[in-house]
Amino acid sequence: MPGIKPPLINKAQQKCGEDIIIQQDPDVLDTWFSSGLWPFSTMGWPEKTLDLDTYYPTTTLVTGFDIIFFWVARMTMMAGYFTRQMPFKDVYIHGLVRDENGKKMSKSANNGIDPLILIDKYGTDALRYTLIREVAGAGQDISLQYNRKTDESESVEAARNFANKIWNASRFVMMNLEGKTPEELREPALENLELADRWILSRYHQTVQKTRDYLENYGMGEAAKGLYEFIWRDFCDWYIELVKTRLWKDKESVSCATARQTLAFILAGTLKLLHPFMPHITEEIWHHLTQENQQVLALETYPIADSSLIDLDLENTFELLIESIRVLRNLRAEAGIKPGATITAILQTENSQELAILQRGQVYLKDLAKIENLILTTKLTEEVNQAIAGVVATVEILIPLSGLVDISVLAGKLAKNLAKVEGEIKSLSDRLNKPSFVEKAPEALIQKTKQALAESEKQAQILQERLKRLQ
């Protein structure tokens, strides 16, 4: 109606004076409309520029599911209208980082998590890796474990521990390279590789292959988990431990030189693999390793797998050795054998292939399980009493305990543990035998209870057999 001014003009004139003149800018687009032009307007469109010709259409758009209509759809429609091309080949739609209760973070709900607090406490790489690792699939949300009272996160702390593991392992490797870089050491000669070297190289190249496959298919979470497993378990927990004797026993030997070359090669390749996930720590270690300040890790070629060095049969072979060492260590701990004490160990199997594997890996078994007298056999000639036993595949593992521990004390400890487990079995059995529980409890809880019962029964059987062995 004539003479009636819009409310905002009235409000502005009351504040600034009646003589204020307000005009609409004729060259402004709504935020989402201008964003819709983004793929090509940033390249100089509507002019035919070199950037537009080189970079448009782009390869991948990464965005959250909550703005598919506001942004992705508008970019697609506008690009189709103005350029007659799709603006991108792939759209990777990710989920949202939700709070510790699974709720969407927002200002109105006041449930936001300040990333700077977690970064100050655990480091940028730790937070970055945590979020990537938790990506289970495209579009799935991440619930970030977080304690608001203490500003702590167990999941981010675990990633920080992973970073510490990488740092410490890298320090160990560099301390044993005698001041040389991976480039100076070169790759190890195939004819000089020992069993552990061939195993870690196979695991490394398989990890490279899987990581590239995951990344090419946007499986970031799976790639992060695979790298964690390889670095923490295969490289740090096993390979480094396996080569320590070779590094320190005879520093002039071919075996020592090959171990150094392999360590340097694996560390350099692993830093490249991990760099997109943890860029800061890998870049820092890279400069120490290469002794080159100008050589930026971010610009290095991403590793390519050498399929000729992937040997799945060898990996399966080595897994038997790893599990045997793990059981031997656990048996030592359960029996209370002093860490520095050497032992006699008997490994018995009628499987000729597994026996051959154990024979090939004798040096690793002796070294990592502190075995002075290792007996590998297809058949026990006599009953071994006062021993603690375990099983890996078809291999029975026995450690005679006479002279190492007080048998009566150990028997009492095992009997006490057995009584506790038998109590758990009774409690779980009684619960499953109650009609009210079976009829009313959720199926998931019933299955969980059955699984717990099966595990307790298995544990009771192991304890009974160990008590019998001590007699």
UniProtKB/TrEMBL annotation:
GO BP terms: valyl-tRNA aminoacylation
Positions in coiled-coil regions: 411-466
Catalytic reactions on record: tRNA(Val) + L-valine + ATP = L-valyl-tRNA(Val) + AMP + diphosphate
Domain Methionyl/Valyl/Leucyl/Isoleucyl-tRNA synthetase anticodon-binding: residue ranges: 197-344
Keyword annotations of the record: Aminoacyl-tRNA synthetase, ATP-binding, Coiled coil, Ligase, Nucleotide-binding, Protein biosynthesis
Protein's UniProt keywords contain Ligase: yes
InterPro entries: aa-tRNA-synth_Ia, Anticodon_Ia_Val, M/V/L/I-tRNA-synth_anticd-bd, Rossmann-like_a/b/a_fold, tRNA-bd_arm, tRNAsynth_Ia_anticodon-bd, Val-tRNA_synth_C_sf, Val-tRNA_synth_tRNA-bd
EC numbers for this chain: 6.1.1.9
Record-level GO cellular component terms: cytosol
Record keyword Protein biosynthesis present: yes
Record Gene3D superfamilies: HUPs, Isoleucyl-tRNA Synthetase, Domain 1, Valyl-tRNA synthetase, C-terminal domain
UniProt xrefs under Pfam families: Anticodon_1, tRNA-synt_1, Val_tRNA-synt_C
Molecular function GO terms recorded: ATP binding; valine-tRNA ligase activity
Valyl-tRNA synthetase tRNA-binding arm domain residues: 406-471
Domain Aminoacyl-tRNA synthetase class Ia: 21-144
Family, per entry: Belongs to the class-I aminoacyl-tRNA synthetase family. ValS type 1 subfamily.
Name of the protein in its database record: Valine--tRNA ligase
Organism expressing this protein natively: Microcystis aeruginosa SPC777
